[in-house]
Amino acid sequence: MDSTTECIKKPLSVLSALFAAVVCVFLAVALREIPDEPGGLTAAAAAEIPRSGVEHPVTAVLLNFRVYDTWLEVGVLLMAAMGMLLFQRRSDLRDIRLMPSPEPVLHWLVRLLFPMLVLVSGYLLWMGKFAAGGAFQAGVVLGSGGVLLWLAGHPSLTNFPGRLFRSLLIVGFLSFLLASIANMAFGQAILAFPPAYAGTIILILEAAATLSIAATVSALIIGLQPVVRDRDRAPIHVPSD
Amino acid sequence: MTLNEWLLDGLIVFALIWLALKALYTRDLFKAVFLFIVFGLIMALAWVRLKAPDIALAEAAIGAGLTGVLLLDAARHFNRPRPTPHPAEK
Fold this sequence. Notes:
The complex is a heterodimer.
Chain A: H1 10-33, H2 42-48, H3 57-65, H4 67-88, H5 104-127, H6 135-151, H7 162-185, H8 198-222
Helix pairs in contact in A: 3-4, 4-7, 4-8, 5-6, 6-8, 7-8
Chain B: H1 3-25, H2 29-49, H3 53-79
Helix pairs in contact in B: 1-2, 2-3
């Protein structure tokens, strides 16, 4: 608490405290408006879950009933990755590598952890069908695996072919686009999956979205680092004994 | 609800508010980011208590993990003078 408040300007903090208090009052009023009984579309959605292709209501809503929203969210992630690439004036993650760490324990740990992260990611993706899980969580776990590889100085991610990297970025958005086009080609409404194939379509869409989210997450973190060329590097000090 | 659940919920709510205040009023950016990450993890617990495990997973992975890493990176950029841009950089 010692190093905290003295430098903050008084009028500004009073103003923001007032603002926060007003927002709190509004939130409290809004909270009273929420009905106790589950209303709205809950019953309608629950009745349609058997035809959605999945068993978990959250996945049914996100990947079937309101799949349009999810599609656009994947689009937002794609835009974020594109914005980062534009700002950094790059088209892939090449040359952003860290020096490999001389620690053998780290290498061993990464070799142990990365396959586990891939496995957990796949499990989360599969679990979305019947329990909490799904593309976003799986994608973030996989993406953090990529960041782990990069932090450990593993060259795999920064030697990644640029074309493949860009394909991974767009595969999520593209698969939603293809699904909607295919739906319309078969005379359905856009993104109204036929119940017989809905489970398969959702799994494919989620797998593609997982790849895109993982690529975006790791690109957002790795791509912001400055390029260090080999000749600029300070030599690492390996303790000699 | 049993007494234990009341205690747990009260503890979570208290920890959330306390962590939020600490994160806001800490001058050390790194400390603030770590407090924010811990806030995200406790928030995930709160979502579990509210029977929303999906949001809990997303909060832990995105709110605490991903945002935390990005904020740490931003804090590092604030604390360190910008490196001079490389002349050969495309």
